[in-house]
Design goal:
Blueprint: H1 11-29, H2 32-42, H3 48-55, H4 60-70, H5 79-91, H6 100-110, H7 124-127, H8 137-147, E1 183-187, E2 197-202, E3 212-213, H9 216-231, E4 241-245, H10 246-259, E5 266-269, E6 271-274, E7 277-280, E8 294-302, H11 307-318, E9 323-332, H12 349-354, E10 359-366, E11 371-372
Parallel strand pairs: 2-10, 3-11, 4-5, 4-8, 8-9, 9-10
Antiparallel strand pairs: 1-2, 6-7
Helix pairs in contact: 1-2, 1-3, 2-3, 4-5, 4-6
């Protein structure tokens, strides 16, 4: 039954009634997408963007809170922005359209359902289905490219409408792991007469433009890959210490020290980045080591910033003539193809070469904006 506008009823009252109905439909149908479709069938004046919010039982302010939660509070969106987007979807000439990146976040937010715990695949294209052709051309191209990825149904409709993401053709990613690409061989800087060929895998991101959150099994899989590369260096690597760069690197150093280096001493380097400046916190820990020690530095990811260059200079100042190895979980690529053919196709290739490392070990390649370790370790 359609929700009729009662004489004198405020838009806020109608919104509350629609949210109540949307939540009820979700309970009956078990799907935000289906509840939104039913709401639009009953109320043709309700745009898809608004219907999906109602299907989650959210007010505009609550939807904004959910949006900020999805971005880990790196945004401070308000209900007025949600209202502007929905006004645009309803009237076109008023309000303002959401960007492609905002649609991605909204799709993730609404996919959590009324309780905020679901993981239903929601199409960013479905959110603006009736207004697709009114988006900026760049965002239309982005939506089409996004729809062409293997995890969703392909193909825009012949009439130019937004491509549909069919739930039945969506590949579900298990909650306890992340998708990984096939192994490939990459030649990296290594010791004299060492084996430069390492076996690397890619970490494809099913949500472009968002950080890829790693699950614990995926994190452990990468550590196992690093251990395998170290064992196949071509000579035995006996580390005097493993240093972790920040908390994620410290976890890596702890595992490598225990599993591969006979429980060698563990160091900790707590970095602070202020714009283009890098500094080390007083909480950093430097174990006592022999002269000219062999040190393995562990970092979670390497992008553009010259963190490894700064760290190696500090290590050599404290431990003169140290032989330094670098083990990194994820290395960002310059292009879209994660299965790179050359070490120089990595964004951090030049800074790793300049650091004069004895050898480099890389578990996986990744795309921007990067990867997030389990429990958001920093």
């Amino acid at each position: 039954m359609a929700v009729q506008k009662r004489h004198g009823a405020s838009p806020q009252a109608r919104g509350r009634e629609m949210a109540r109905l949307g939540r009820q439909l979700w309970q009956e149908l078990g799907s935000v997408r289906e509840a939104a479709a039913e709401l639009m069938n009953r109320n043709p004046d309700t745009p898809s963007l608004q219907a999906h919010r109602y299907a989650c039982g959210l007010s505009q302010d609550q939807a904004a809170v959910r949006y900020n939660e999805v971005t880990n509070h790196q945004t401070s969106l308000g209900g007025t922005t949600i209202n502007a987007w929905e006004t645009w979807a309803r009237r076109r000439a008023a309000g303002s359209p959401p960007s492609f990146s905002s649609l991605l976040v909204l799709a993730s937010a609404y996919g959590q359902g009324p309780l905020g715990v679901a993981d239903e695949p929601i199409s960013p294209s479905d959110l603006i289905a009736e207004a697709y052709e009114h988006l900026a051309p760049e965002d239309q191209v982005s939506l089409r490219r996004f729809a062409a990825t293997p995890t969703i149904a392909k193909g825009p409709s012949p009439n130019g409408q937004a491509p549909s993401f069919a739930a039945k053709t969506t590949r579900t990613i298990p909650a306890e792991s992340n998708p990984i690409g096939p192994d490939f061989t990459l030649a990296v800087p290594t010791v004299e007469y060492g084996n430069p060929a390492i076996s690397v895998y890619s970490l494809p991101n099913p949500h472009p433009g968002q950080l890829l959150n790693l699950a614990w099994p995926s994190f452990g899989y990468g550590l196992e890959r690093l251990i395998r590369q170290i064992k196949n260096l071509g000579r035995r690597l006996d580390a005097d210490a493993c240093f972790g760069i920040n908390e994620a690197g410290l976890v890596m150093a702890t595992f490598l020290a225990s599993a591969q280096f006979g429980r060698c001493p563990i160091g900790y380097l707590k970095c602070h980045k202020h714009r283009d400046q890098i500094s080390l916190d007083k909480a950093s820990h430097y174990p006592e080591l022999r002269e000219a020690p062999t040190i393995v530095l562990c970092d979670f990811e390497v992008k553009h910033a010259d963190v490894i260059g700064f760290i190696t200079r500090e290590i050599r100042r404290r431990y003169p003539n140290a032989e330094i190895y670098f083990a990194v979980f994820g290395a960002m690529t310059k292009g879209r193809d994660l299965e790179v053919t050359s070490f120089d196709d990595l964004t951090g290739a030049s800074i790793m070469r300049a650091a004069d490392l004895a050898a480099v070990f890389i578990a996986a390649t990744m795309s921007p904006p990067g990867i997030e370790p389990p429990l958001e370790l920093r």
